[in-house]
Each structure stands twice: as structure tokens, then as C-alpha cells.
Amino acid sequence: MSERRKRNIVICTLCGVLLLMTVGYAAFNTLLTINGTTSISSNWDIRITGITSEDIVGGASDAESSVVDNLTANFKANLVSPGDSITYYVTVENKGNINAELAGIKMSKNDNSAITFETSGLTTGDALNAGDKAVLKIKVTYNSNITKQPDNLEANLTVTLNYVQEGHKSEWKPEGSKTIEELKELVTTEGDGLYEDTYEPGRYIYRGAAPDNYITFNNEQWRIIAVETDDTLKIVRAITLEERPFDSQNARTDGYCSYAYRDGEHLGCNVWAITDNYDNHSSSTGGTKGPVTKDSEIKTYLNTTYYNSIVANKEAIEYHNFYYGSVYDKAENETEVVNEEKKYATKSYIGLINTSDFLKTNTNTEYCGKNPHNPWANFASNNCVSTGWMHRVSITGSWSYTLNPNFSNGYTVTSGAVQTFRMNGYFQPQYPKNVYSIVPALYLKSDILLSGDGTQENPYTIENY
């Protein structure tokens, strides 16, 4: 980047949120600061021009808010009871004559579950042309799930807005951060780490008992499954959501889903998404076919209620294909599993893992997944549990759903089942109506920038969303 471009970069930082809680009362102070470089052009002038409090819920109130100077704003509010919230609208204005764009938004991890933070109103790539204004919304909520005074009475929040000269967003890169291309340079051929995917050229997967694939998303711990062929990152939440069915009993009875009966009882539909003519025919001797006229309940939940609950890094999610072809109990190898999975795809923001995602995480390739005519039969062995990290995804219930329907030639009722797995590595078809653990998975955009080293102590963090 030229010296002219360098001096035209201004970093905007919202920092120092301090939350102090007493019985039935919460107070917090926020400092918004825009820091410039030591040699800023006089034509570059981005400043805070106003701050207001709106959208007040419950007993929340604004105690004090003011613009201290061109670069700093303070606000202080009172939250009285769980469920109370208040939103601050911070106006940032381009007073100069150089057009700018937002290169990245970074929100620090909030370590106090009693308070939730949500920012909105600005998106990476937004223009801030000369003379224009933009509004950053900061919503602070006293968590409605809190039932007693928390032990932790303080919380800190930092939100960083990184503005650069228009047209140079792609050149902005925080010191020490990695691009996806740089992440792929960490590929290895032994031990725990990032491997080239044997079954899908151009894809890279994290394998082994403890690879450095931890990533912070939505202020939570997630893990990277793979770098996809399109350079998106597929990640999975490290802790499950509440248990729920894949699809409820009697939710639908038409088309393909009309096959999912046993002893006169409807089992729910095991297909992730609408499709004109789903074919669960994964072998030469049988299968079921028909239209699927409605998305599964779990797809709808994950892409509405759960998606709407995400408060950080939401703009980093890629609207991406999820593959939901059926898997066959007697598949010859992982290649067959992958090929069957990819027969059907639909785009979503949030999904679940595929069966093959679990299979590929293990480094013990001589034993795990090599049982003749059943690539997942050995995964419950202690030998496999100790060599695959996905066994350590916290499963709170007995089973957890994958995206894939199951077809079994020898056990006909499983033509209406979903492939599930347990933390101990067992794979088993289960009926969609059953209430099991949900482990969300999603894809992150290919232009994300990551800081950190991927360890559990210093996970990757997203710099630009």
C-alpha cells in the first residue's frame, strides 16, 4: 500500500465497557474512541457527531451520554431487571472530502453471561462518503434467563470499526492476522492438524485428537471443520443447543414423507429441505421416492429463531449449499458416502454437520472407517475416540442429528430415519420425531481475516466482521 493510502486509514474503536452489577441493578459505562494515525491527511475527517438512547425496554434508563470530543463518546445506563434493554445510536460522520468504507468490525468476547451485547446498523463494506453519516447501534440487555444475582459483576466490551479509503478494503489487514490462503499454508501430513482432503481435491480438513481449530464466533467457542474448495470455512458449534426433533410427528404426511410410518405412527420427515422428487435410493435393491413439500422443522428453526439470536460476526456467515443426500448403512467407503450426500443441496445460513464430516476427522485411517462395507462401524472403538476431535464436541443428549437421511437395505424402517451420532462415535439411524441434541454448523465467508493461533487458549477470532 502506498504512503498516501496508509495515512488515509483511520481506526475507529469502541472500547472500555464496564458493567457493575448490584442486587437488582446493573450499571455500565462505555467509551467510544476514534483513533487516528500520526500523520493523517487534513482531508480525512471521520468523527462522532451524536449519541442518543432509544428502544428502551423495561426499567432501563439512560444515566448519562455525551460526545466528549470529535473522537470520543461516553454513555452510561442503568439496567434494573432481567429482560431490560437499551439501545444507543452513535452517529459517525465523514466530515472530510475522502470517501471511506468500512473494512472490518470486531467485537470482543463478552465473558459475563448476565449481560448481552448486540451491534447493528453497520456492515463490512458499507460506504461512508464525504458528507455522509452512519449509525452504529449498540444494544445492551440484562439477560432474561438470569434468575439470581450473578457472581461475576463486571464485563468488558470492545467494538472496533476499521475505516479505510474507498476502494482499498481488500488491502486492509491487521498485523498478525491470517487470510484463508495463509491458513491453508499450515497443511500437514502427520499428527493433529490441517490435512488435504483425500476424497475432495481442493478441500482441507482438520483431523486428529486435538488440532488447533478453535474459533470464536458469536462470542462462543466453535471449531473449524474444513476449508472448502471455495475457500469458505465450515465451522461447528462446540457446545450443543437445546434438544429438539429433526421434524415433528405428523408434521406432514404427503409425498416422500408419507413413507415414514411404523405401526401406523408417523415418524416425521427426515429430509432437510424442499425438493421436487427426493430419492432415498442408496442401493440397487430398494429405496423410497417422492416430493418433499416443506422444509424440515430443524432447518426452519436454525435459519429463523437461532439465526436471529446471533449477536456477533453475523455478517461473516456465507449463504451456502448444505448437502442432504441420504447415506447407506452398507456404503463401501467414504467416497460413496460423500457422493451420496452431494446428490441434493440447498442454500441456508445455518445447517448441521454431514456424516462425512465426522468420518474425516480421524487420523487413524488404518482402523477407523475401514471396516468392510460399513465405513463408520469402528468409530465407537477407544482407538478411534482418541484420534478424532469431533468426538469431543459436547453432546448433551444421547444422540445428535446430522443433515443426512439414512437408508438401510436390511432394516426397512430406516428409510424414514436420519443418520445420528454420539460423542462416543456410534452412528445409528433415528426417527426424525425423536428429541435429540442439535449441533449447528455454518460457513464463514472466504475473505475473513483471522487473528489468534487456533488453540483453545488463543482461538482464531474474526477481525473484519
Q: What does this protein structure show overall?
A:
With 465 residues, the protein is mainly beta. The protein folds into two domains: 3-171, no CATH class; 241-444, no CATH class. The protein is built from six helices and 32 strands. The two termini are 22 Å apart. Residues 1-42 and 410-414 have low confidence and may be disordered.
Short synopsis of the structure:
This protein is mainly beta.
What is the strand and helix layout of this fold?
Blueprint: H1 3-7, E1 10-22, E2 25-35, E3 46-57, E4 61-69, E5 72-79, E6 85-94, E7 100-107, E8 115-120, E9 127-128, E10 133-142, E11 159-165, H2 180-184, E12 193-196, E13 204-207, E14 214-217, E15 220-227, E16 233-237, E17 241-245, E18 261-262, E19 265-266, E20 275-279, E21 289-292, H3 297-309, E22 317-318, E23 320-323, E24 327-328, H4 334-341, E25 345-348, H5 355-360, H6 382-385, E26 400-407, E27 417-421, E28 427-430, E29 435-438, E30 441-444, E31 450-451, E32 460-462
Parallel strand pairs: 14-32, 24-26
Antiparallel strand pairs: 1-2, 1-11, 2-5, 3-6, 4-5, 6-10, 7-9, 7-11, 8-10, 12-13, 13-15, 14-15, 15-16, 16-30, 17-29, 18-19, 20-21, 22-30, 23-25, 26-27, 27-28, 31-32
